[in-house]
Amino acid sequence: MADKTIEKSRRIRRGGGPCRNMGKKRHTDGHKPSNYLLNPPFKIETTHFSSVFHSEVCRAAKYKVHAPKCKCSKVDRLRQLYHQENDNNGSRSLAAQLRDLNISDPFDNLIVVPDTKTTPAIFVSNETTSNEFQNDSTLCERKLAYEIFDGSNEATSRDALPFKVSCALCLLSHQKNGFVAIVANNSAQELQPTISKARKAASETANHKLHSDHAHFICAVQISSCMSLLQSVKTRSKQGQIVSEIVTQLKNGGVDLPSSAYDAAWTIQLGHHLTSLLWLQGKLKNNKKSQYIMVLGYKDGPTKLALDLPGGKRHLGESTLESLVREVKEECSLELDKEWLMERLSHRYGGMLNEKSEDIHVLESDKERGNVYLVFQPIMPIK
User: Fold this and answer.
1) Backbone phi, then psi, for 114, in 5-degree steps?
2) What is the mean pLDDT of residues 272-296?
3) Highest mean pLDDT (candidates 59-73, 80-94, 235-249, 347-361)
4) Which of 15, 47, 205, 343 is 20 to 30 Å from the Cα of 199, by its Cα?
5) Are residues 228 and 242 in contact, defined by beta-carbon separation less than 8 angstroms?
6) 327 near 371, Cβ under 8 Å?
7) How many whole angstroms separate alpha carbon 127 and alpha carbon 133?
8) In whole angstroms, what is the distance from residue 311 CA to residue 382 CA?
9) Residue-wise over 52-91: b if at least 16 C-beta within 10 A, else e?
10) What is the pLDDT of residue 39?
11) Which DSSP string do the residues of 128-183 spell out, in sequence order?
12) Residue 318: helix, strand or coil by DSSP?
């Protein structure tokens, strides 16, 4: 019996006897089967974004829209897979499947890519080629937005959807995210009429429902105090003094803060966009710098505050100007005069002027290629 057991063990080691992988082809050289590229590496959809592309294929929580012929790394990888499969002579080539859709190159259009690790499919907006996009990028984006949101342009309808759609950086090179800095040269009182209108509009809207991103308060602060706060991160004693100064400015400006807490005991966090603007302002030379700025405030705890600028990400199909007007209203109830701004901004931000004739101070950062900061004094009509 022992001899039979030993002989059986020898047969298994020599490759004889039963094998767990029987019937399965092994690829010990690390390459995929030869027919791998005959199957499309990803699906391409051109219609029914919500009901098919999202609900049946991708099921992603977030999607990004890319410009025609963009150079983003993720799209580059997809393009390589596409061309690799397209060069294959198999009968199920991806190019053959696109002929009926009248698409010669899917990446020469606006495309939507799921913001996930894998990409089961992309959504191609037909007739938004690089030539058409160059002629009117906003019109092409609006066509895609109509397809994605089933013809609805209302922000409330978009918020109710189970997915979010945002612009990739390549798309923001055409129309950027907009942020606004309303400043004053001499005193905080110059900003008070604008702040009062925003507070009044917010109190009237509060009976209904404010936007989820709406600020807890609006106030004017001294730019030099904010700059000093940035520079005092490593000096706790000096930081407490500067925080006390800012808290005093907030209270003097009508912000309701608990009087029981010492002013120096507060923690103030400057938001990313306010910080970016301060650094950009600090680099300006031969320019009369403003003294006060209108900020949005958020109460993050019993003694924690955050300050930032109004503005945010633009929606698909919006210009920089349109997104700025919408974001400011959502975040502080202030309704900017769109026509007034259009007459003072260039085409690249959704205005009516050439770039050299802009009448509003515009700041851009090399580190933030997708954002732009509009700086102006409170002389603009407020609706």
Assistant:
1) -65, 140
2) 83
3) 59-73
4) 343
5) yes
6) no
7) 9
8) 16
9) ebbeebbebeebbbbbbebebeebeebbebbeebeebeee
10) 52
11) --HHHHHH-HHHHHHHHHHHHTTT---HHHHHTSSSEEEE-HHHHTTS-EEEEEEE
12) coil
| H helices present in 218-362, as ranges | 223-231, 236-252, 272-282, 320-332, 338-342
How wide is the angle at C-alpha 369 spanned by C-alphas 363 and 374, nearest 5°?
25
How far is it between the farthest Cα atoms of the chain? Answer: 104
Length in residues, the chain: 383
Instruction: Indicate if the pLDDT at residue 238 is higher than 70.
Output: yes
Start-to-end CA distance of the chain, whole Å, equals: 99
- Other beta carbons within 10 angstroms of residue 285's beta carbon come to 4
Q: What is the pLDDT of residues 61-106, one digit of tens each?
A: 999 999 999 999 999 999 998 887 766 654 455 666 676 677 888 9
DSSP string, 20-60: TTTT----TTSPPPTTGGGS-SSEEE-S-IIIIIIIIII--
Looking at per-residue pLDDT, the higher value among 207 and 6 belongs to: 207
Q: What is the pLDDT of residues 176-221, one digit of tens each?
A: 999 999 999 999 999 999 999 999 999 988 667 888 899 999 999 9
Global pTM reads 0.81
Instruction: Identify residue 382 by its one-letter amino acid code.
Output: I
Contacts with 282 (C-beta within 8 Å, 6 or more apart), sequence order = 227
CB under 8 Å to 71, separation ≥6 — which residues?
Answer: 170
Beta bridge partners of 336: 382
Give the count of beta carbons closer than 10 Å to the beta carbon of residue 191.
23
d(CA 84, CA 39): 11
Residue from 271, 262, 335 nearest 300 by CA: 271
Cβ contacts of 237 within 8 Å, gap of 6 or more: none
Angle (nearest 5°) at CA 42 between 41 and 43: 140
Contact 111, 78 (CB under 8 A): no
- Locate tokens 């403003």: which residue? 290
Tokens of 236: 């706790």
Q: Which two tokens stand for residue 182?
A: 């309303």
